[in-house]
Amino acid sequence: MTRPPRIVDAGGDRGPGRGPESGRGQGHDSGGSVAGGGRLHVVRLAPAKLNLTLAVVGRRDDGYHALHSIMVPLTLGDALTVSIAPRGATDDSLRISGLPLSAARDNLVLRAIGATRAAVGESGLGVAVEAPPLAARLIKRIPVAAGLGGGSSDAAAAVDAALAVWNATLTAPQATAVAASLGSDVPFFLARGAALVTGRGEFVEPLPQLQGEPPAVLLVTPRQAISTAAVFTAFAGGSRLPPRAGSAPGALAVSENLAAAMRSGLTASGLLELAEDLAGANDLLPAAQSLAPGLLDFMGALGRLLGRPVGQSGSGPTLWVLYRSLAEARKAARLVRLGMLDGRLPASGKGEAFVAATSMAVRPGGSPIANQGPAARRASHAGRPRTVHNGFGEAVDRPRGWAAESHAPNGDDSR
Length: 415
Description:
Blueprint lengths: L41 E10 L3 E5 L5 E20 L8 E6 L9 H14 L12 E7 L9 H17 L5 H11 L3 H6 L3 E5 L3 E4 L9 E6 L6 H9 L14 H13 L4 H6 L1 H5 L5 H7 L3 H12 L4 E2 L6 E5 L2 H17 L11 E6 L14 H7 L35
Parallel strand pairs: 4-5
Antiparallel strand pairs: 1-3, 2-3, 3-5, 3-6, 6-7, 8-10, 8-11, 9-10
């Protein structure tokens, strides 16, 4: 069952935008200012996701593949700021800085705002809500078409931010329906924590967070954008993992075992002990390798350089390695950058790979915010930043590789 944050069941708390955490204590004028104050800017951090497991368990009647995947959010993320558009604006707008990405009308942020506006208008909650045009700014730090869910996370953040600006509410089923209409990974980001994702992605079971200090993660993304749709097409065409030798479990067994362990209170150190099994538990790996020349060799060289299991997130090509601490992951990141310079890591793609040391994110308060009362939810968000500057604090290194600031007209916002 999906339990989206700050989007609540009908008859309960009024939801997003109804308290100090969103800054909406006073009304808006048509120019997007707050009465008695300056213009309101709602800020949402959109985390990347990591697939610890990804098993493809069948083909559905609707043509999608059915999945069984354990996913976790990361502290690496994009930053989305949303406000009422300036007076006279008739359409939603989007500005993007950071990694190259298109701000065209089919961008998931703009699609999410439009879908949320339509859902609010059809919500049937008996409250008239004004939904004027919005101005959004996205600081893009998650590589696109990399298996990290950046576009899907941006969409989920846009849904939440739009509701906060409009002072509107959606029920949990309505929010889930909006999310699922935008993309298979979007419902996961409404859970705001580790989750078991099944179906094509629309069924999300929040899982208990790991006990102890969250593990750190080294991300290495060769500069080879891979379309999720193309990977599934290659998978359907026969690019599959060979049967595991001996008694080694397949991706589904590893995924099911991990879900059970997390429900029983898995520790962070316990997860690290499972790294080798997890690294092999992605059924889409051969399909991604078939579409990205050099990815297989790069992955092998990375494993030899670091002396640790290397996995792939989602449809790739992002590769991940688990560490006990962010300091260890940062040290590994420096080693990877040096390896790319001295030839120990072969070229893969065109240009320098994206390299980042990050950590698994912790769900605020240890449980989905939608299950907390108003006072607890306000307390959970008391420290929410009002603006975003040059990073996400000490939890993540500033990513290197790929452009730092750009406004590319032609980007890819696929998952």
